[in-house]
Amino acid sequence: MNGSRIALGLVFLALALPAAAEDDRYRFAPGYGAELSVNLAADGGGARFDWPRPVALDWDTALVGVRVEAGTEPDPWVEIGAGSASVRQHFEAGARGLRWLNLTGLRAQLADGTPVTLAGHGLKLEGGPSALRVFANRLDWRKKILVLAPHPDDAEIAAFGLYAGSNATIVTVTSGNAGDANYRDNFHDPAEQYLFKGYIRAVDSVTVPWQGGIPPERCYNLGYFDARLATMHAKPSEVVPEMYGPNDDVAPYRRANVGRLLANTSGKNRWSNLVDDLVAVLKKVKPGVVVMPYPQLDTHLDHEFVSVAAVEALERWNGDARFLLYTNHAFDNLYPFGPAGSTMSLPPWSGAELPVEAVFAKTVSPDLQRRKLFALESMHDLRLSPAEQHSCLPPGLQSKRDDYPRVPEKDYLRRGPRSEELFFVYGRRGVQDLIRSFLSARRESTN
After folding, report:
1. Which residues of 230-252 are buried (b: 16+ CB within 10 A; e: fewer)?
2. Do 130 and 35 touch, CB atoms closer than 8 A?
3. What residues contact residue 290 under an 8 Å CB cut-off, 6+ apart?
4. What stretch of H or E contains 174?
5. What is the β-pairing status of strands 61-70 and 123-126?
6. CA distance 253 to 205
7. CA nearest 168: which of 188, 185, 148?
8. How far apart are CA 193 and CA 225, in angstroms?
9. 6 near 304, Cβ under 8 Å?
10. Closest by Cα among 219, 181, 160 to 372
């Protein structure tokens, strides 16, 4: 996750922050789940409804649409109860309009006719007819899983709970050699500092997944350069050097690899080479499930263009796969809201209407959340640098420098370990249409 502790800049912020007083604008395609009608009976600041009789699908994910009205106080939330269990879902301050509550964590309690209670804290819930959406994704976990991560740590933030203990292959596209100057106290030359940062993060990308049971032999860092993918896409046949130095060869970062998914030889940082590499990865792994960013929702350029490159590679691979799309950069890096351990649902979105085929909420047990927390903490870019640790010493021993700002609300140690990991699910044609729409909108916005 490049620059994980700072805002992404105004260009991303404008995309990431929908107007708080607008409805979420997701267009759910027919035929990929079931939509049922429930009636929310208003109850003070909350509401309740009865689980329908019967729900024909053997569902794995359930969402209910509610209209909320929150004040400006931080951290409004809803406690959702059914039977003997309850979960909490948090929202952005000032949330107003249609939002989606994730009921997946209550699945064991949701028998026919079970009352479901919604208690608002810092917000009001509007009663009346509402849509309940259930999805039976029937994902075949016997098939191989390919997780595409733009930077070291993105696979862990988005999908540690999904890939842990599976047959996954994890491919990280960039070395993470940009962003915060975490190690500037240790290197006088910025180019040398970022070369070191990229290498140590590339090592993280192939070793930390072992904490989830994925050995380094099934992990690979392609070594392309952080914060350069959009430039590479714009000039696909040109070689693009690193941001902070003259190097244009991916080899210094590929030497971190233990596995031999691709050859650890010299290669130029060029878009056409990246697409060629992803074609080779698809043909070797033969995945049945591909996990990658959702470009319209994930507002980091590298995340957006990893998925663009993956879909270009699909044109030269005839395999059949389901695509699980995630976002690690939404709503100015504040999503998901609330404390670690709470549930998560769809990110707020009031931009151009987004098509959704299905949603999959992967349940993450408390034990697996704990393991995910320590995997995230093992990533160099998500924890305090040596200089930052020095600044935490008692008074009298601290460095006088105070230029390592922390933004706790944006910390991935809060945002990452959740009771679910959330994915938008598409077939091959659906994800190709999604990328075409993304590129068309991007061209229009830049003209």
Report:
1. ebbbeeeeeebebbbbebebbeb
2. no
3. 145, 146, 148, 310, 321, 322, 323, 324
4. strand 169-174
5. antiparallel
6. 11
7. 148
8. 14
9. no
10. 160
Q: Could you tell me which of 276, 310, 317, 278 has the C-alpha nearest to residue 294?
A: 310
Cα separation, 234 vs 268, whole angstroms: 16
CA distance 173 to 303: 10
Give the other-Cβ count within 10 Å of 135's Cβ. 23
Q: Is the model's pLDDT at 44 over the cut of 80?
A: no
- pLDDT at position 405: 57
| Residues whose CB is less than 8 angstroms from the CB of residue 104 and which lie 6 or more positions away in sequence, other chains included | 60, 61, 62, 343, 361, 363, 420
Q: What order of strands is seen across the sheet that includes strand 219-224?
A: 219-224, 169-174, 145-149, 289-293, 322-326, 420-426, 358-363
pTM of the model: 0.93
**Stretch 367-375: mean pLDDT, rounded?**
98
Q: Is the Cα dihedral 31, 32, 34, 39 positive or negative? A: negative
Task: Confirm if 153 and 381 have CB atoms less than 8 A apart.
Answer: yes
Handedness of CA 102, 108, 114, 120 (dihedral sign): negative
Closest CA to 185 of 197, 176, 177: 197
∠389-392-393 over CA atoms, to 5°?
105
What tokens appear for 267 in the block? Answer: 């290669």
Token digits of residue 374:
């320590």
Please give the Cα distance from 425 to 360 (Å, whole number): 7
pLDDT band at 2 (very low <50, low <70, confident <90, very high): low
